[in-house]
């Protein structure tokens, strides 16, 4: 709006520049981009590389491996050859990471599951931060009764173990379709886990936001804004919100990491993503019974979760450093 | 109510909750284009006085008395009406220009925002006005300063930007709360000179709040000295800083504690014994009496307001003491 002096960078440009010079931030972003791209390419992989439909079970299937026709379900190694065990990692195009107990390609399911895991955790994180921002800003700025009421509510929510709370909410909503007046939400709708996870982490995110607003409320520039005749609502939007933005941005990847863990846990307990759809948590669940014979079914999604969560945490830390507006250009 | 005055404060009382009045019956008035220096130690109630005038005393504060602004009683106005006055007709500048400017916006944006909040100006004229204001503050490179963020400017430039923001809507009254305290001495002098010059250019009256008698002696037309929430003395500057001035014992003590460049060198600077009382423990009579060298039994009743001529008054039973104490 003002004539700009090109040598003066805005805080966001400055933060971007710092981020570009931070190797761990770049590594984290690269990992996250790679994971996201791979998951987006799930359809391509399933159709054109693995030639499989990862959503239908086919225990009678057979593939050509090293020139031999091989059954997906193989007899057990015990002396009587009782029972069947799905094929392990083939390290070739089909069944790269082996098969799950229903004869589905774990590698393809891993990519499809990643879509859900990423979508749910990212949406839950955004929703959670948005709700936490409203709660934190209102509590911090208006103080008094508003603060007491909101903060005690957060305390009560935070006092219930997160997973227990999420499980209780899930059982109410996922057991049958949810009817909200004219709207019916099917129990396998992804909205449900997103909203549940977002709600349970609101106290986690709202506290630091409230703390930041509490100190901003007494900042002199807020008094100045009042002395210049600015309305309260405008002060919230103009002076408070941009100054808590760094806190929100730093919290987003951290909450996303927590949300991803929560999503996996819920799905592992069969109250998140519903079969035949997959998420990293449901695949770990599929691999549970095969943990001694075919550990890769559980290890692969586990590794995917570890890598993604780690990258998100590193990104959060780097963002915290990059967004510290008070520090000069390094 | 004095219709001539820009600001006419009568018997102003400010307190919090059920506590005692921290500002206890303060009265003063400011004529158009006048600079009134309100002097006092930390905790004497001078900043509360300014916040009360702005209508920014936070809950659970209570404000009593009368604050007449150009013939309007401010304390009778609604919050919306007062907000419309703030920044438009009464503006304020603060001690620390670093924390007074929002760190996330460019200076120019902040001033423009302030103009847009009160005046109906479109983009182009607003922009021109911002640059004009910054130039009027004696800023050589207004374009660069307008594009800068607060942390990128020096303290002096920040304070100039802050003053530009306060003056952006041509207020009738500018309240300057310790405007030079956070600045170093050379910049201090420049800012004071700027305030003097702007008083003429913008035709604003100025309420200058400070603990620095030197600042007051330089630019104030009239002076009011506050002690423990009350006015101890008020009068024209010449009457208080002249060679043969006679003043309130507290003012005399303040003047005596300033080192001097001329005259005989003193071995030790005179200090006022004791420290300012907690407002809750204020003695029933003259608040200064426990620390006053001239105190007598008569000081246990509230002191009368004694006129010394030329609109100079002190709240003391003594016929005033010499402004220049004899250094022993």
TrEMBL record, chain A:
Membrane topology note: Multi-pass membrane protein
GO biological processes: peptide transport; protein transport; transmembrane transport
Domain ABC transmembrane type-1: 114-316
Cell compartments where the protein resides: Cell membrane
Primary location: membrane
Keywords, alphabetical: Cell membrane, Membrane, Peptide transport, Protein transport, Transmembrane, Transmembrane helix, Transport
GO cellular component, one term: plasma membrane
Keyword check for ATP-binding: no
UniProt KW Oxidoreductase keyword: no
Pfam families: BPD_transp_1, OppC_N
Regions that span the bilayer: 25-46, 118-144, 156-175, 190-206, 240-262, 296-316
Family affiliation: Belongs to the binding-protein-dependent transport system permease family.
Protein name: ABC transporter permease
Species the sequence originates in: Endobacter medicaginis
UniProtKB/TrEMBL annotation, chain B:
Gene Ontology CC, one term: plasma membrane
Pfam families listed in its UniProt record: ABC_tran, oligo_HPY
Entry annotated with the keyword Protein biosynthesis: no
GO molecular function: ATP binding; ATP hydrolysis activity
CDD domains: ABC_NikE_OppD_transporters
Single biological process term from Gene Ontology: transmembrane transport
Family matches, as PROSITE patterns: ABC_TRANSPORTER_2 (PS50893)
Domain of life of the organism encoding this protein: Bacteria
InterPro entries with a match to the protein in the record: AAA+_ATPase, ABC_Ni/Peptide_Import, ABC_transporter-like_ATP-bd, Oligopep_ABC_C, P-loop_NTPase
Limits of the ABC transporter domain: 7-253
Nucleotide-binding is among the record's keywords: yes
Membrane protein topology class: Peripheral membrane protein
Main localization category: membrane
Keyword annotations from UniProtKB, A to Z: ATP-binding, Cell membrane, Membrane, Nucleotide-binding, Transport
Cell compartments where the protein resides: Cell inner membrane
Protein family per UniProt: Belongs to the ABC transporter superfamily.
Protein name as annotated: Peptide/nickel transport system ATP-binding protein
Species for this entry: Endobacter medicaginis
């Amino acid at each position: 709006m003002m004539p700009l002096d090109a040598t003066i960078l805005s805080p966001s440009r400055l933060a971007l520049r710092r981020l570009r010079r931070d190797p761990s931030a770049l590594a984290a972003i690269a990992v996250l981009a790679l994971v996201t791209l791979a998951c987006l390419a799930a359809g391509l992989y399933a159709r054109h590389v693995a030639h499989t439909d990862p959503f239908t079970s086919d225990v009678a299937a057979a593939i050509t491996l090293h020139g031999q026709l091989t059954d997906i379900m193989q007899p057990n190694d015990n002396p009587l050859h009782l029972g069947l065990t799905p094929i392990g990692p083939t390290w070739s195009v089909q069944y790269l990471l082996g098969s799950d107990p229903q004869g589905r390609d774990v590698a393809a399911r891993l990519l499809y599951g990643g879509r859900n895991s990423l979508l749910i955790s990212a949406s839950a994180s955004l929703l959670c931060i948005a709700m936490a921002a409203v709660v934190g800003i209102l509590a911090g700025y208006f103080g008094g009764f508003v603060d007491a009421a909101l903060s005690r509510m957060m305390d009560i929510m935070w006092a219930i173990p997160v997973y227990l709370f999420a499980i209780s909410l899930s059982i109410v909503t996922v057991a049958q379709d949810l009817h909200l007046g004219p709207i019916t939400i099917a129990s396998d709708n992804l909205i449900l886990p997103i909203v549940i996870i977002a709600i349970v982490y609101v106290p986690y995110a709202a506290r630091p936001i409230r703390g930041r607003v509490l100190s901003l409320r007494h900042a002199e520039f807020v008094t100045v804004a009042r002395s210049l005749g600015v309305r309260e609502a405008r002060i919230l939007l103009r002076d408070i919100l941009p100054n808590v933005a760094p806190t929100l941005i730093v919290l987003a990847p951290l909450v996303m990491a927590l949300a991803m863990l929560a999503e996996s846990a819920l799905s592992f307990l069969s109250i998140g993503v519903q079969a035949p759809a997959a998420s990293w948590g449901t695949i770990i669940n599929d691999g549970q019974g095969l943990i001694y014979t075919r550990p890769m079914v559980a290890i692969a999604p586990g590794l995917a979760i570890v890598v993604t969560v780690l990258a998100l945490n590193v990104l959060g830390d780097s963002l915290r450093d990059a967004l510290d507006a008070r520090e000069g250009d390094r | 109510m004095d219709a001539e005055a820009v600001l006419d404060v009568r018997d102003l009382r400010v307190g919090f909750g059920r506590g005692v009045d921290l500002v206890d019956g303060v009265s003063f008035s400011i004529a158009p284009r006048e600079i009134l220096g309100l002097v006092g130690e930390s905790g004497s109630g001078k900043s509360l006085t300014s916040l009360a005038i702005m209508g920014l005393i936070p809950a659970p504060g209570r404000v009593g008395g009368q604050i007449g602004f150009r013939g309007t009683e401010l304390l009778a106005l609604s919050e919306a009406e007062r907000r419309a006055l703030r920044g438009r007709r009464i503006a304020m500048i603060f001690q620390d220009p670093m924390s007074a400017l929002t760190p996330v916006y460019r200076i120019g944006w902040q001033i423009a925002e302030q103009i847009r909040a009160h005046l109906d100006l479109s983009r182009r004229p607003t922009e021109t006005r911002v640059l004009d204001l910054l130039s009027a503050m004696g800023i050589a490179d207004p374009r660069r300063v307008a594009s800068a963020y607060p942390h990128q400017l020096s303290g002096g430039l920040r304070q100039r930007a802050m003053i530009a923001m306060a003056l952006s809507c041509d207020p009738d009254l500018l309240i300057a709360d310790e405007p030079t305290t956070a600045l170093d001495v050379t910049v201090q002098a420049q800012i004071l000179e700027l305030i003097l010059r702007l008083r003429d250019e913008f035709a604003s009256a100025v309420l200058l709040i400070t603990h620095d008698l030197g600042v007051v002696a330089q630019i104030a037309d009239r002076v009011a000295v506050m002690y423990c929430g009350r006015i101890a003395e008020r009068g024209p500057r010449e009457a208080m800083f002249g060679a043969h001035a006679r003043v309130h014992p507290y003012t005399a003590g303040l003047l005596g504690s300033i080192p001097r460049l001329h005259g005989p060198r003193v071995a030790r600077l005179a200090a006022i014994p004791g420290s300012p009382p907690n407002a809750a423990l204020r003695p029933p009579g003259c608040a200064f009496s426990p620390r006053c060298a001239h105190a007598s039994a008569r000081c246990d009743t509230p002191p009368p307001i004694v006129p010394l001529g030329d609109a100079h008054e002190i709240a003391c039973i003594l016929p005033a003491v010499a402004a220049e104490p004899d250094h022993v």
